[in-house]
Structure formats: C-alpha cells, structure tokens
Amino acid sequence: MDQEKDIIQIKSETQDEILLAALKLFAEKGYFNTSLTDITEAAGLKNTGVLYHYFKNKQMIASKLYANISDSLNISIDDIRRRNQKSSEQLRGIVDLLFKLTDDAPDVMRFLLILKLDEFLPEEKPVLETPAFVKIIKIIQSGIKAGEIRNIDPQLVNAYFFGIINNTLRMVLTGALDKKADAYQSATWLSAWNAIAKK
Prior knowledge:
The protein is mostly helical. It has 10 helices and no strands.
C-alpha cells in the first residue's frame, strides 16, 4: 500500500515537472516553437518516452496547463467573492490577484494573456467562457443591480474594465512597460473603475 502511494506521488511530481517546464517554454518561446524534446530536457527527464508515459502529445500538456490555471483562478475568485460583499471590492480583489500573478507568476499570465490559445487549443472553451470569467460577469451584473456600475450591457462593462487591466498587464509582460506590474496597479485600477463606475 505504501509503495503504491510512493509510485503515485512520484508520478504526480514528474507530471508537475513536465507541466512547469512546458509552461516556462510556452511562455518564453511560444507553443509552436516548443518541441517535446525541449520539454523533456527542461523537465530533466531521461528521454521523450518518459514524457509519453504522462501525456500523449504537446496539445494534451497545454490542455492540462489550461485546465489547472482555469481551476486555480476559479477557486481564487470564489475566495474573493466570499471575503467581499460589494462588487467594487470583488473586482478590486480580482485586479489585485491579476497584478500579483503578473509579478509572481509571469509565465502563467503570459500563457493566459499573450499566447493565442485558440490556435493550439481549439477544442477548449475560450478564456471568457471559463467558470472564473462567468463569475466575473455575475459580479458585474450584481454591481449594475446595486447601482455601483453603469447600467450598460455586462459584456461591454467587462470589455471596458478588463480591456484596461489586460492591456496594462500585457505591456508589463512584453516589456513595453519597464517596471513591475505593482508600480502601475493603482493608476490602472482607477482608470478601469472610472470607465464603468456609476457617477
């Protein structure tokens, strides 16, 4: 029984190493410029055969990464919603999370914001249709209902608000802005909130 647990644990650790190596390579080189050999070497595996033991192909690796990131964001947004009552506070918590991830986990944010996921994961739901982003629309709808947010189509509110947030983060991630995301957080929040707040 203990030996089975050890084998499962080792398998899980190896799978995590493959995913982390792939994430870093996809973020740095792009999906199409990353080979399975690159991932094998970066994960410290003996050969590509070991990688095939965990994933059938590169697309399966990308799909698992996308699922893990989406699940993690979903859990984080649930937590933010539980801790904050007002829509403005919930949106602020989400913005804080995205800026923190940009500084602390830039490869995750490059995967989400820079890579064109639909080009290599055409079967997956687009980011805006994942549970995490569906919850953001619900936060926006609640804000409109409560009179915090302008009474316009929630999808437009989302586009105005996150357009400002995402463009700022993309500029940090691509080096167009030379400071860490944290340096731009307050000004970006104010611009984004002013674009949707009911005056």
